[in-house]
Structures are given as structure tokens and as C-alpha cells.
């Protein structure tokens, strides 16, 4: 996985996702969203800032309500290309419930928003199956939702059934047990739990690489994999809820759960303690990532920024927790490895040493290089 | 507003929203969603069935959490046609917060989901303004949200900025004060609070009538109105939160709040008491509805099924509450009128007597006519 900074290498922006532009636009939105925090000073007050994996609302009597919203993004297009709709609901639950555990909360429910061009019983039934399976794995209910028939606003993959699928998950956490990595100290270890593949991030780049650059079809066998490209990309996102709840209940000291989504290991820098992180050892990235990188001629920096690279959840904990947490992860069917540790770095740099990357803010750059835009 | 059942009259289905088909498809989704209720039997248990305006989760110690999800639908297209994005956020808050009050809960927060083709700072800033104004009116925070850049999945009005905007609102209610109309008795009155226009329902039909049938442009003056068609359709949805909270705190007996959205007065039949409703007196429908009906040659049954027809919120209360509730509504700047009363009817028929309609389940039909599909 060497960096290949060639003129033909593709980036997330080339694939239709311009993170820099999105961040700039987001600033405009936040100008108005931030002042809403002052609108609830007592009951219901948001306890965390914008940018946490989930916020927590103060319900009084020491009770906190965690809330987070996320969608499945263009993984919906892969489902459409394959005509397979029975697992995308798992992704929807996963993307949301995995965020809820990252504030130390127990997910209890998720509402779903399903936007379609044409309401189709077969499509809805299949999507429902995934939602139910996701709900089972996350041990939540789906107490309500919304179906929007907005044919003029939505479009899909050719020949597929256009839809968008979004969830909002809520969970509960005692306000004195909100976990945001506030107690992380240099030397605490970073444990990484295996992902099942691309999860629900970076699908635009993956599709660009497989389908546009390499010219593969969704039904083509993925080179070196024992299934089609579509099946590989559609592999459901792992739901880490049971593991995380078990970890919290077990009493094994844990300082942070970090859902590895867009931004990859830079998500580690979202912990509230002013520390950096060194990732010193990485399991070999699953083949799907190597294929994407090769077919799309994608740089390491872009790969590590866009994809989870094989690690779907990081746990930051005191060194002595590493062994019992690994055992617990294995019990839940997830391989876990010690990836590195927290460092004394108030600038919160995340270094991925095996590939010579370091990240600040929202960007990875080659270690030692400079560039205002990238920092 | 006579019914004009001509061959050229348009229906919601003609306008791209097939309610019958949507219901059939929804059944497929609910097959999987309903079993999720059993996944949370203790903490977090959903206390209401699917179909309530919002569900309420049991948080223990008598605390309930109301949750509801809704989007702005194709009102987003009107915003795009007009290039005016600073009020659609109000609609997003309104559609959600108004549902939360219908279980007797106090809205505390809403997360937003903003899907765009291209993240644009100006667009986001304007949308944020509406969200902030909506949050002010509903007295909630927006503690988090999600921006999705999904250009391949979303499309917009010609020349406009494609986006979809969805919210999930949460609120709190003591579990022994959940209000679902369970205590409504025949003779209780239905008070109607004025809407500001079409709110966020039926925009597909309204656009069909104005822009396709009548050939008007969004910037054309609406006949008889002192502003353009686009401005009229984009008028923000009324947020009834302060009125409802004032009513609950005042001690004036209230038996149900009913948000008049898709389905119109049929939303009255969503109360849990097995009663029917007679709407006996209606304020004249605002001009916008008369224009839509005339330009689209739309039947009364379809109009009353798709639009709020001038009433955005119904309050069901004992007769002696009517006068103080009207005064309270006026104090909050909303005209309110007594529309009718609850009837002893276990079949839950909603009759709109001024226009000779009666509705059961999800459909209005001409009083006296039959038809299995419509019943």
C-alpha cells in the first residue's frame, strides 16, 4: 500500500464527495445550529458540543439521553445495483447505534426515514428485514418512522429502486457516566475491533474504483474474493453494541469507544482529552481495500481518510484492559488487536506509522510534508 | 368547493404520490418493524403502537421519551424553484415538533438530516436560518445532525439546489400524562387552529395544479393573493408548540392535540378513544386551497384528504374548554374556531358535513357512496 500520487489517482472529491467543500458548507449550517443550544438551558440541555459522536440531553435526575442521526449514504446504490435490499437496514442501525455507544450510552430505539421514488411492497419488505436484524443485534426497538414518496427528489442506480435510508438512534446514559474519552492519558492503549469490510463509508470512492475505473460489474467476482464485488461492498456493517455494553457492564476500565467512520483513525481525535494517538501496528488491510486502492490508484492518505481499513471500532483503555477487552471482543465474534497508544500531544495528531501518515483536524498528510490546506 | 369528478381532475396519485400503494408497501415494512417492539421489554419499551403521532419510550421512574421523524417532502422543490432557502428549516421543525405535542410531550430537541447533491455554504447558511427560527419557536435545541453528500441519489428542481431535509424530534412526557385522546367522550368539542397555508403536506398536488395544469411560474403572482405562487406555497408551517404547552400548563382540560397533516381531518381518527367526529362548521378555506382545487380540478374528497384546508391543529376538549382554549390560541396569534364534536361511533367515522364527506380508515368518500377500496 504505497502512496501513488499519480495524476490519474482518484480522490473522494473525484468520486463526488468533496470533504473540504462539505466542511466549509457545514460551517454555514453550524452558524445557526450552535445558537440553538442556548434555547434549552434547563431540562433537555445538550451536554456535549457539536462534533461528538452523539449528543447527550440532560433529562434531569442524573439521566441523559443520547441522540444521533446517520444514513447509509450511497451504499443504497450498491443495494440497488445488486437488487438486494435485505441487509441495508442493518447498516442503517449500525451507523447510528455504533455512534450512540461512543458516548457510553445504551441504545434503546431508532426511528427510520425511508425516502423512495415509488413505494414498492417487495422493496419495503426487504428493507424491513434488515432493519429488524439490525434492531435484534443492537437490542433496540424501531418505535416509528417515516416513509416519504418523493420521486422528483430522489434517484437511484440504473434499473434499481431509488431509495434513501436514514436513522436516528436514541440511548440512555447516566450523566455522570458519559464517556467521551475525557480521562484518556498518554500510554493508554488503542484496541481495534475488526470491521466486516467497507461498512457504510467511502462507497462513492469504492464504486468509482470498481465500476468506473476497473470497469467491473456489480455481479463480477471480485479478484481474490469468493464473492461478487456487489456482495463484498454490501456486506453489512458490524454492530458493536453488545460488545460495548458487555464491556461497560463487566467493569473492565474503558476510556473511549471510537466508531471508525468517515475520517478513519482521525475519529480518535474526537475524544475530549487533549492527547494524540500513535497507531503502530495494523493488521493487514482486508483485500477489498487493497483492490480499491489498486483499481482507483488511490493514495494511502485518501484511503485512510475515507475507509476504516479493517478496523470498525477502536477502544481506548488502560494497558491492563487490553487483554480482557480482546477476549471480550473475541467472545462477540470480533477479532481485536492492539493498534497503538495515546500520546502526550496537545495538538491531537494521529499518526499512522505503518504507512507514514499523520493527521490533524480532518486531514491526513504524509508525515513531514506541509500544506496549509491539508493541515 | 363542489366536487368535480371529471376525467381530467387530478389526484394525489397523478401528482406522484400514490397513497394506496404507499400503504400497501408500508404493510411490508411494518411486518418487520412491529416485531422490534418485543426487543425492548423493559427500559426503553415503546408505550404506543405504530401509527401514533409519536411514540413514547418508557425511561423508568415515570419518565417517557416521545420521538417522531418527518421530512419536508417536496416543499424542498418549491424552495429550490424560488431559490429561497431560509424558511424550509422552520417547516422541518414544525412537522416534527407538532407531532411531539400530539402525545402530550414537550419537545426538547431535534436532529436534522440534510442530504445534498453539492454542499454549498450559501444553501447551508440559509437552511440553518430556518432551523434556528424553528428551534426558537419550538423552544428546542438542535444538538446534532447529519449532512450527506449523495449527488447520485438526489435530484432537485431545475436550476435549484437539490436537497432533502428531515428531522427527528424528541420530547418528554410523564408516562401517566401521555395524551392520545384516550378520554375523549361523545360531545367533546373539536377546536381548529388556523394553518398558515399548505404547511408541508400536499405540495406534490399543489405543484401539479399550479405549475403543470395552470402553467404558472413560481414567480407569477397567485390570482387574488398579494404574493407569488412560490411565496404562498413556501409559507412556513405554523409551530403550535408554545400554544400546546401553555394549554397543558394552564390546567384547561384538553383531551387530544391532533396535527392535521397528510389525511387532513382523518387524523382525528388517530385518537385512541373509539369515537367518531362530526365537523359541522368550517371557516372558509384559504384562497390557496381554492386555487389548487380549481386549477387542478381536484375533488373535495381529494382536497380534504391531501390538505389541511386551513386548519393546522385540532384540539379535542370538553365543551367548557372551548372558550379558554380559543382565547389562548388568539394570545398565540392563531385564530381558532369550534369545528364540531366527537360522536358515539365505534367505527370512528369522520364526517365533514359542510362538504358532504365521510372518512373511515385512510380515505374520504362521498357520504352515502360505497366502495371497498375507499373504505
What's the arrangement of secondary structure elements?
Two copies of one chain form a homodimer.
Chain A lengths: L18 H15 L21 E6 L2 E9 L3 H8 L5 H14 L4 E11 L4 H18 L6 E5 L13 E12 L14 E6 L8 H11 L15 H6 L6 H10 L5 E4 L16 E4 L7 H10 L3 H7 L4 E7 L4 H10 L4 E8 L6 E3 L4 E4 L2 E4 L9
Parallel strand pairs in A: 3-4, 8-11
Antiparallel strand pairs in A: 1-2, 2-5, 3-5, 6-9, 6-10, 7-9, 8-10, 11-12, 12-13
Helix pairs in contact in A: 3-4, 5-8
What is the compact description of this entry?
The structure is a homodimer of 375-residue chains. With 375 residues, chain A is of the alpha+beta class.
The residue fraction in helices of chain A comes out at 25-40%
The rounded distance between the terminal residues' Cα atoms of chain A is 22 Å
Assign the structural class of chain A, choosing from mainly alpha, mainly beta, alpha/beta, alpha+beta, or little secondary structure: alpha+beta
Q: Give the number of DSSP strands of chain A.
A: 13
How can the largest sheet of chain A be summarized?
Answer: 8 strands, mixed
Poorly predicted runs of 5 or more residues of chain A: 1-7, 369-375
Oligomerization category of the chains in this entry: homodimer
Amino acid at each position: 500500500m504505497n502512496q501513488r500520487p499519480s495524476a490519474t489517482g482518484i480522490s473522494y472529491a473525484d468520486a463526488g464527495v468533496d470533504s473540504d467543500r462539505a466542511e466549509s458548507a457545514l460551517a454555514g449550517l453550524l452558524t445557526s445550529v450552535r445558537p440553538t443550544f442556548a434555547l434549552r438551558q434547563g431540562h433537555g440541555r445538550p451536554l456535549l458540543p457539536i462534533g461528538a459522536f452523539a449528543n447527550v440531553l440532560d433529562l434531569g435526575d442524573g439521566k441523559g439521553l443520547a441522540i444521533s442521526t446517520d444514513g447509509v449514504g450511497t451504499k443504497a446504490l450498491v443495494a440497488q445495483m445488486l437488487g438486494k435490499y435485505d441487509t441495508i437496514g442493518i447498516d442503517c442501525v449500525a451507523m447510528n447505534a455504533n455512534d450512540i455507544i461512543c458516548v457510553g450510552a445504551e441504545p434503546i430505539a431508532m426511528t427510520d426515514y425511508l425516502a423512495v421514488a415509488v413505494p414498492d411492497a417487495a422493496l419495503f419488505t426487504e428493507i424491513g428485514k434488515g432493519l429488524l436484524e439490525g434492531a435484534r443485534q443492537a437490542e433496540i426497538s424501531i418505535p416509528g418512522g417515516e416513509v416519504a414518496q418523493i420521486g422528483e427528489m430522489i434517484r437511484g442506480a440504473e434499473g434499481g429502486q431509488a431509495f434513501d435510508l436514514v436513522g436516528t438512534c436514541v440511548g440512555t446514559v447516566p450523566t455522570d457516566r458519559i464517556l467521551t474519552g475525557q480521562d484518556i492519558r498518554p500510554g493508554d492503549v488503542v484496541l481495534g475491533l475488526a470491521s466486516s469490510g467497507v461498512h457504510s463509508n467511502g462507497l462513492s470512492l469504492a464504486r468509482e474504483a470498481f465500476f468506473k475505473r476497473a470497469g467491473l460489474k456489480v455481479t463480477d467476482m471480485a479478484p481474490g474474493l469468493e464473492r461478487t464485488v456487489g456482495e463484498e461492498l454490501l456486506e453489512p456493517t458490524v454492530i458493536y453494541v453488545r460488545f460495548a455494553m458487555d464491556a461497560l457492564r463487566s467493569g473492565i476500565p474503558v476510556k473511549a469507544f471510537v466508531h471508525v467512520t468517515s475520517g478513519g483513525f482521525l475519529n480518535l481525535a474526537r475524544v475530549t482529552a487533549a492527547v494524540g494517538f500513535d497507531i503502530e501496528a495494523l493488521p493487514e488491510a482486508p483485500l477489498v481495500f487493497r483492490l480499491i486502492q489498486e483499481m482507483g490508484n488511490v493514495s494511502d492518505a485518501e484511503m485512510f481518510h475515507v475507509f476504516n481499513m479493517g478496523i470498525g471500532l477502536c477502544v481506548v483503555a488502560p494497558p491492563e484492559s487490553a487483554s480482557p477487552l480482546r477476549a471480550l471482543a473475541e467472545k462477540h465474534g470480533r477479532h481485536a488487536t492492539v493498534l497503538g497508544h495515546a500520546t502526550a500531544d496537545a495538538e491531537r495528531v494521529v499518526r499512522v506509522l505503518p504507512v507514514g501518515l499523520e493527521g490533524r483536524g480532518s486531514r491526513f498528510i504524509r508525515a513531514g510534508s506541509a500544506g496549509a490546506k491539508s493541515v
